[in-house]
Amino acid sequence: MKKMSKHIFTLSALTILTACGGSNQSEQPDSIVVNPITPPVSISPKLVVTQGTITGFGSIYVDGIKYNTDTSNIRKNGLNTQLSALSVGMKISFSAQQNDSDEWVAQDVAYDTEVEGVIQSIDRNNSQIQIANTVVFYNDLTHFIDTSETLIGVGQRVEISGYPQADGTFLASYIKADTDESNDGHEYTAGIVSNLDEATLQFTINGVVIDYSSAVIDGVLANNTYVKVEGNLVDGVMVANKVDARTVKESLDIDDDSVLRYQIEGLITQVSATSIGVNGQIFDYANDVEIEGAALNDLTVGMFVEVYVNNNLVTSIEFKQSSYSSDGKVKGVIEDIDRENKTITVNAVVYVINEFSRFEDDDEQYFSFATLNINDYVEIAYLQTSPLPSVLKIEKEDQHEYQQEWEMKGQVTAISNNIITVNGAEIVLVTDAKYIIDDALVSFTTFLSQLIVGDRVEVEGQYDTNNLFILGKVELGRNDNDGSDDDGGDADRGDDGDDDNGNDDKHVGYVELEGTITQLLTNKSFMLNGYEVQLSENAELELNDRDVNLITFMEALAVGRTIEVEGQWVENKYILVSEAELK
Questions:
Q1: CATH 2.40.50.320 for domain 337-401
Q2: Is 165 left (phi over 0), alpha (psi -120 to 50) or beta?
């Protein structure tokens, strides 16, 4: 299916009336009477209203399309601001129209933080954090600012933008360390409404009870629709002072008569034979709805799509898996740049840049392909396309960022003794690293004996000052669709198709958790994030950056203290810890 034209054509009829007169004495030629042509009235094209994620600047790019913002009215959290206040990864809503030069010009641009507060717990194995009792997932395409997936920690306050999921959890496209203390008196959550009770003035989002009895309500509350909530947690209940239930149209204060169509990008939150919900906004299908990338009957909750909506009817649906999942991730130094063909070479692998590639740099908003240079440090998330892998996201880093701990993802293309090649990078497997197969810890020997070329792995470690990779952990998953990343992930979890398969929720397999201690049980056990945790006699225990024994470690434990643990579920009952660090 060809994508719907974004041009608007005005057709005018030109009528020429010709009258033929008879002969006259002067034998003048037949006269031609032409009615005067009235120039068509110049009518401004109608607006196209879009909700999507910023992919670049100059002026602003969304879904690979440039929108001029020279005359835009830009708002952030309800306040007028400048373009510089926005960032790649933010989900925005905006109206735009084309000028006489076919350039898209944005009029109103609005961004609102959706989840914000102090991180309560982190499940690194399943790439999720909890804020205001709301579960937030992150993935390879999540843009981190002033922090990273390895640096985020319990007690840190962050702000988040992204996409609500049907189960009330949230998929983050953008996570930023919150440095604005003016709004620290409240917490913010967002998601799909369920269990709306107008008698008790309560509803839930993913099990989080929202008490809106004292709140100002913008818009109309209803089950299965998307809302943003500002308030405070009191005994596990979010007591709201404001609930924003406005649609995109209402948030931009747009008259329907001025809108040509809506373009809504996000996750399917509900689907039926007659309607579809995207980001909690529900639309009926038009009779002749077109679909690209999937069949209408194949649409399921959790798919990432873009829908075109006219008169509240969906006329077009495009499946966009690559917008929220990747096939791999790699770091390296740019070795070569082909400006003409828009390719870069990292670790001897050539990657192609296209109009959908996202460019991210904390310090340089207008970072683009033109500003890349040989010897730049970069991190790349890619899609395995033919003939060359395509860059989904490229992030430029300084040397300090480059040497931080991170996770590489990709396919093993060579094995030589204890050296494997992943994404062109050679990784030395050492005996003191952690090795995991199908979410179970195994020995170095077992891992090496089972690993084969073609396996997809996740490799955790960091580069040293000599650009040598220091290995910490390697994970291989074969039970989860052969470890493939490209199935779009678990639609209900909204992950990026990583090899880990959510075993923490099933109480089996390897665990990596961070949170606060809620109860001390025995001289070697306690409660963490609602789970019982037991320390093994030979566990590696760290206190104030030094190794300690079990007795010393337990003496330092207290309710409310932050701790990070790694271990294994035992008999679906408790976590047996092999490593723990008291923060």
A1: yes
A2: beta
**Using one digit for the tens of pLDDT, what is the confidence trace for 339-376?**
999 999 999 999 999 988 999 887 778 889 999 999 99
Residue 387 and residue 109: Cα distance in Å, rounded? 37
- Helix count and strand count (H, E) for the chain: 5, 44
115-245 CATH: 2.40.50.320
Rounded Cα distance between 466 and 462, Å, is 11
Query: From 3.90.550.10, 3.30.43.10, 2.40.50.140, 3.40.50.10420, which CATH number describes the 507-582 domain?
Result: 2.40.50.140
Whole-model pTM: value is 0.83
pLDDT class for 17, splitting at 50, 70, 90?
A: very low
CB-CB neighbours of 505 under 10 Å: 11
Alpha-carbon distance 217 to 21, whole Å?
74
Question: What are the structure tokens assigned to 559, written together?
Answer: 């309710």
Least confident of 71-85, 113-127, 310-324, 329-343: 310-324
Give the pairing of strands 562-570 and 510-522: antiparallel
Helix (H, G, I), strand (E, B) or coil at 133: coil
**CATH class of segment(s) 403-487:** mainly beta
Band of residue 500 on the pLDDT scale cut at 50, 70, 90: very low
387 cis-preceded (ω within 30 degrees of 0): yes
